[in-house]
């Protein structure tokens, strides 16, 4: 029988920022989304101030000034490096690990009952704290859904101790009482949409859901919710997904730092998003059979004229060639572009994705040109992997990239760039 | 340069039928096309001694996952041969002890000092007469961030 531990970093982005900057000790810190739009991470001090997740930065700027809140743009390079380090440490505790998101991983800890699972959880927490300076909470249970809940309890101090909560040794009566105190909306997979519908049926707490009639739930909702219910009852239905399945769609889209009006700049943006998407496509060894390009004006500004359009074209031949994709992207964009609008966002999507494997038979038969193109793309990826993304790029991507993201509060690449290393004073 | 090409599983299986390959069923298998050229004649007598070139990473870094770099500013650690412009290799997995050179956060600053911890006294000590030790008393916020285990520097050419 599997036993899962969900290890989750507390306030991950904000904690990464605090780790390297001693001036931030005890200071409220928020991290903002792309273009410094919304609050996507909050330090404990900010949570205590009651500032909600997702609130637009401009709306709390005054409040932030009063409380001395420090804001950061998302430093993805830093968070990704710290996230990889956390996963490396966790891998020392179990060979079976599923990296669920940038700050959460599931571990299969069955076989470690001897030490006491809660004690094992404390060791995990202690090592991540000592080695990386990040605080994690650990939830331990016989199913992934319950492990998520146990983690929630550890984080909110509802049960367990010192950031670790183990459902496997909790007496059933205690667990019942605990689940009565947690809203059904906290259950993994029960979203904001389902919660009111469940509440209308008298299912308000996790315990209500666990003890509900499985047949009724399946007929009224879905087998997915029925599976959730079985997981809540302790039957593991969701296994660790150790191998990331290849993506069926690759999307690359971004808001612009400033509004974009002319076709030229949009062309550059679309070309560079396509480059990035094609690179991801090649990384997983796939080809795309269809390409979507979309553009839109801001949905928030009622005074501006609005326009949005997305067009998908099937490609004559599946490809992973940045240049071919960029050419198609250009053609689509030309069709959907309308002058006179202030564009706020553009995006591309690659779909109808298939493994290159199947097309690989052509390796020995097809024209020299196709093979040469493949090698050119390989060279492109190798150069960019070695010298940094964007070292070698299509001319269509443009040089000055005026439309690029605004990241006015970006911290240095403390662990990812030589020029960004934190200095120490010998004084 | 070796080129990586996905190979159909049927072919890969023929190559690898005698060793364990746990992930092959689900993953495309990459094979280097030109690793290990087959040639007639005598094998190189050095073949068994390949891959022995020294790697400075393994010399300087004991535990990569918990290791971070900090460039040094200032002269207070010159007695310990730590100079301005050196980059410190700092390992968080080592428990700080009396006598270690440490990176410490104190009153909003990142400092490099020698840790003094004896007879209930804690202090951060410089290695230069011109800089007095910092006694850690109540109210002084000290965080020993990590232990310095090495340093490196590039020379101008």
UniProtKB/TrEMBL annotation, chain B:
Its EC number is 2.7.7.7. InterPro entries: LexA-like, LexA/Signal_pep-like_sf, LexA_repressor, Peptidase_S24_S26A/B/C. It comes from the Bacteria. Gene3D superfamilies: Umud Fragment, subunit A (2.10.109.10). This is Translesion error-prone DNA polymerase V autoproteolytic subunit. Keywords: Nucleotidyltransferase, Transferase. It comes from Candidatus Propionivibrio dominans. Residues 36-148 form the Peptidase S24/S26A/S26B/S26C domain. It holds the Pfam family Peptidase_S24. PANTHER family: LEXA REPRESSOR, LEXA REPRESSOR-RELATED. The lineage of its organism: Bacteria, Pseudomonadati, Pseudomonadota, Betaproteobacteria, Rhodocyclales. One of its GO terms (molecular function) is DNA-directed DNA polymerase activity.
């Amino acid at each position: 029988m599997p036993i899962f531990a969900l290890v989750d970093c507390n306030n991950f982005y904000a904690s990464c920022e605090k780790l390297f900057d001693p001036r931030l000790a005890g200071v409220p810190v928020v991290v903002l989304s792309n273009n410094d739009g919304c609050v996507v991470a909050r330090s404990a001090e900010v949570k205590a101030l009651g500032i909600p997740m997702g609130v637009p930065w401009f709306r709390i700027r005054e409040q932030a000034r009063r409380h001395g809140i420090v804001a950061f743009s998302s430093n993805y390079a830093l968070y990704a490096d710290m996230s990889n380090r956390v996963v490396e440490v966790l891998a020392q505790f179990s060979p079976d690990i599923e990296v669920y998101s940038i700050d959460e991983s599931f571990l299969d800890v069955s076989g470690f009952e001897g030490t006491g699972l809660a004690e094992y959880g404390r060791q995990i927490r202690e090592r991540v704290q000592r080695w990386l300076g990040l605080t994690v909470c650990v939830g331990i249970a016989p199913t992934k859904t319950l492990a998520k809940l146990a983690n929630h309890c550890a984080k909110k101090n509802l049960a367990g101790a010192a950031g670790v909560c183990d459902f496997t040794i909790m007496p059933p009566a205690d667990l019942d009482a605990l689940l009565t105190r947690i809203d059904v909306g906290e259950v993994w997979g029960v979203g904001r949409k389902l919660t009111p519908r469940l509440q209308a049926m008298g299912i308000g707490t996790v315990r209500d859901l666990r003890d509900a009639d499985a047949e009724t739930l399946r007929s009224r909702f879905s087998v997915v919710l029925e599976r959730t219910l079985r997981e809540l009852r302790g039957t593991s239905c969701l296994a660790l997904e150790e191998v990331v399945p290849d993506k069926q769609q690759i999307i690359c889209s971004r808001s612009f730092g400033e509004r974009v009006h002319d076709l030229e700049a949009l062309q550059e943006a679309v070309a560079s998003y396509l480059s990035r998407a094609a690179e991801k496509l090649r990384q997983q060894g796939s080809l795309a059979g269809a390409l979507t390009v979309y553009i839109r004006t801001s949905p928030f500004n009622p005074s501006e004229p609005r326009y949005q359009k997305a067009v998908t074209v099937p490609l004559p031949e599946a490809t992973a060639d940045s240049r071919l994709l960029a050419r198609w992207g250009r053609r689509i964009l030309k069709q959907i572009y309308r002058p006179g609008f202030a564009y706020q966002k553009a995006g591309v999507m690659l779909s109808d994705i298939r493994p290159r494997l199947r097309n690989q038979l052509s390796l020995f038969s097809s024209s020299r040109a196709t093979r040469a193109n493949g090698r050119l793309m390989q060279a492109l990826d190798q150069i960019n992997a070695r010298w940094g993304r964007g070292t070698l790029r299509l001319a269509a991507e443009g040089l000055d990239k005026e439309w690029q993201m605004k990241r006015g509060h970006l911290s240095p690449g403390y662990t990812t760039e030589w020029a960004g290393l934190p200095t120490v004073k010998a004084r | 340069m070796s080129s990586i090409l996905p190979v159909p599983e049927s072919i890969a299986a023929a190559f690898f039928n005698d060793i364990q390959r746990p992930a092959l069923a689900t993953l495309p298998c990459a094979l280097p096309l030109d690793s290990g050229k087959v040639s007639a004649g005598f094998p190189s007598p050095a073949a068994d001694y390949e891959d022995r070139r020294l790697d400075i990473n393994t010399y300087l870094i004991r535990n990569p996952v918990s290791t971070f770099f900090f460039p040094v500013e200032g002269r207070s650690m010159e007695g310990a041969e730590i100079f301005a412009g050196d980059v410190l290799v700092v390992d968080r997995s080592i428990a700080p002890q009396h006598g270690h050179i440490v990176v410490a956060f104190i009153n909003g600053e990142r400092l490099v000092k020698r840790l003094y911890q004896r007879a209930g006294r804690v202090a951060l000590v410089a290695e230069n007469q011109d800089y007095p030790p910092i006694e850690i008393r109540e109210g002084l916020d000290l965080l020993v961030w990590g232990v310095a285990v090495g340093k490196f520097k590039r020379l101008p050419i």
